[in-house]
Automatic annotation (TrEMBL):
Residues 337-349 have a biased composition (Polar residues). Its cofactor is Mg(2+). It comes from Dunaliella salina. This is Phosphoacetylglucosamine mutase. Residues 533-586 form the Alpha-D-phosphohexomutase C-terminal domain. Residues 206-319, 355-419, 455-495 form the Phosphoacetylglucosamine mutase AMG1 domain. It comes from the Eukaryota. The keyword Metal-binding applies. PROSITE patterns: PGM_PMM. Residues 57-81, 127-178 form the Alpha-D-phosphohexomutase alpha/beta/alpha domain. Keywords: Isomerase, Magnesium, Metal-binding. Residues 330-349 are annotated as: Disordered. Belongs to the phosphohexose mutase family.
Length: 593
């Protein structure tokens, strides 16, 4: 049993005082996020708590230092949960409570009491590790050190992965717990130094899982007569000036010598400002492209037929897009140099989005096609479901349920909440393909195919299903593996981007946000699609939706990452969607004041 040393915790905690007594961050769906200068004590205490959680569960855990799509000056921390455990939410209030304490003795007391009440089954801390990854923000290195000091104060080994994507951290934690990965000795880690050299020590299994499966899956189009070859045009990738750029460079280099026909052209790769490197998430990244419906910086001069996609700062979000109209824009180096800020309202392409809804629909369509090629007894045992959030476009839901005939389940926003739905399905089905999609997080597919493994050499469909399950990161939404999955499926189907767009027509939608005095007065039910508090709010929304016409819908929900209330509206025209969103926002502001 891990026996924490209260004196050691207090001594270490004193090095990371709270920025002020009234600083009380809350652990939300994205963990903790705020201005990086305020986060030292919070990240240290997350290190303590994650080490305690590892001890209670008897499993390796992870911490990711990132604020994802937030501006570069922000940062954050999120616990990477072990793949097979669902009792996660009980730990989130503890993280908030711990972060709010003003005294170091309070911090130590909570950890000691926690482990006394939950002794776990770990013989010693030597058998446990907490993996710590970070993104490329200037503040990430110091916060990584704070996290490691917290982990070590609990007597647990802290292992720095260096600069990795959030999905890569999740993959490593899952692989370590499954026994597929062993940790390098400390001497080797020390010799590797920081950042890229260190992360390279850990990521061979990640890349050797995804890339060979992708190459083999793409080769299947040559032996599939019903799928004509699709144009092998380049894919232009907006890397958001984030950590995904260095890892996509490895993907691009590997595939350059392969026969898949996928050629990645990486833009917004970051780097030093004096060398023309851009700012993280500044007028680029998946969140910017999706919310603004504009192309990122650096995409001037591309042909109208160019295939484009965008990831976010920690590479767990992915959107594809097509440029709609020409733009006049200075060269990338001029826009992103340290001495020349981009214009306040740069002239950027409008884009046609292929977002998380459409990516999930594409993969669901492919899986549905493959199921038809399985032996009937096996096909009948496989249940396919798509887990969406309230933000999923209504047209995508109708396509999946009515055209594909698949089940759709709605979950609250947040990858952990969707994971609970996934595990619920897995407990009910012996063989399962289940796709999940949250916002624009790259869909994840979880597979349980014992019978398919036996059939893979005699059944093409079974073999391709197994390859797809290796291409897609099984632990969490992953933009890098999402790109590989989309590209493989388009090739196997013989589809162009236009073919993909033609699957269904999105309903126009509008998102906005409302500042209120206290966002917690807004309470929701039915996977955040219905407001139950204030009591007058939902009837007012229902009335506005009815007035907006057929297929209109709207909902509000308190943000899990910002002190705002988010508003979403859909209608048959863009004008109607915008008007509905504005009306719901005014009503929310009035009733929640």
């Amino acid at each position: 049993m891990l026996a924490p040393d209260a004196h050691r915790i207090i001594t270490a905690s004193a090095k990371f005082p709270k920025p002020s007594t009234d600083f009380r961050p809350a652990y939300g769906t994205a963990g903790f996020r705020c201005d990086a200068s305020l986060l030292g004590s919070t990240v240290f205490r997350c290190g303590l708590l994650t080490a305690a959680r590892a001890a209670v569960l008897g499993r390796h855990c992870g911490l990711m230092i990132t604020a994802s799509h937030n501006p570069e000056a922000d940062n954050g921390v999120k616990i990477a949960h072990t793949h097979t455990h669902t009792h996660t939410h009980a730990w989130e209030p503890l993280a908030t409570e711990l972060a709010g304490y003003s005294g170091d003795d309070e911090v130590a007391r909570l950890l000691v009491n926690l482990l006394q009440g939950n002794p776990g089954d770990v013989p010693s801390a030597d058998s446990l590790a907490v993996l710590v990854g970070c993104d490329t923000r200037p503040s990430s290195l110091a916060l990584t050190e704070a996290a490691c000091e917290g982990i070590q104060a609990m007597g647990v080994r802290a292992v720095q992965l260096g600069q990795v994507t959030t999905p890569q951290l999740h993959f490593q934690v899952a692989a370590l717990n499954a026994g597929h990965l062993s940790l390098p000795p400390e001497q080797q880690l020390h010799a590797a130094g920081e950042d890229a050299a260190r992360s390279a020590l850990f990521l061979d299994l990640y890349f050797s899982t995804l890339l060979p499966a992708f190459e083999e899956l793409c080769r299947g189009r040559m032996s599939t007569p019903q799928a004509p070859s699709s144009p092998d045009s380049p894919l232009y990738v907006d890397c958001a000036n984030g950590v995904g750029a260095q890892h996509l460079a490895r993907v691009a280099a590997t595939l350059a010598s392969a026969t898949t026909g996928l050629h990645l052209h990486l833009l917004n790769k970051g780097g030093a400002p004096q060398e023309g490197g851009g700012r993280l998430n500044h007028l680029c990244g998946a969140d910017f492209v999706q919310k603004e419906c504009k192309a990122p910086l650096g995409f001037s001069g591309l042909p109208a037929s160019a295939r484009c996609c965008s990831i976010d700062g920690d590479a767990d979000r992915l959107v594809y897009f097509v440029l709609q109209q020409p733009q006049e824009q200075p060269q990338q180096g001029q826009q992103q140099s340290a001495s020349s800020d981009p214009p306040t309202s740069p002239s950027l392409h409008s884009v046609s989005l292929l977002d998380g809804d459409r990516i999930a629909a594409l993969i669901a369509s492919f899986v549905s096609d493959l199921l038809k090629g399985l032996p009937q007894p096996l096909a009948q045992t496989i249940k396919v479901g798509v887990v969406q959030t309230a933000y999923a476009n209504g047209a995508s839901t109708r396509y999946i349920t009515q055209t594909l005939g698949l089940q759709v389940v709605c979950a609250k926003t947040g990858v952990m909440l969707l994971q609970c739905i996934v595990l619920h399905f897995s407990q009910r089905c012996s063989s399962l393909h289940l796709l999940r999609q949250t916002g624009n997080q790259a869909p994840c597919i979880l597979t349980f195919f014992r019978d398919s493994m036996q059939l893979q050499h005699s059944c093409v469909a079974a073999h391709q299903l197994l390859l797809l399950s290796r291409v897609i990161n099984q632990t969490v939404g992953d933009a890098l593996s999402g790109i590989l999955a989309v590209e493989a499926i388009l090739r196997l189907k013989g589809w162009t981007i236009s073919d993909w767009q033609a699957m269904y027509q999105d309903l126009p939608s509008k998102q906005t946000k409302v500042s209120v005095k206290d966002r917690t007065v807004i309470k929701t039910a039915d996977a955040e699609r219905v407001a139950i508090s204030p009591p007058q709010l939902q009837p007012a929304i229902d009335k506005l939706v009815a007035e907006a016409g057929a297929q209109a819908r709207a909902f509000v929900r308190p943000s899990g990452t910002e002190d705002i209330v988010r508003v979403y509206a859909e209608a048959q025209t863009a004008e109607a969607a915008g008007a509905l969103a504005a009306s719901v926002a005014r009503t929310t502001r009035s009733l929640a004041a």
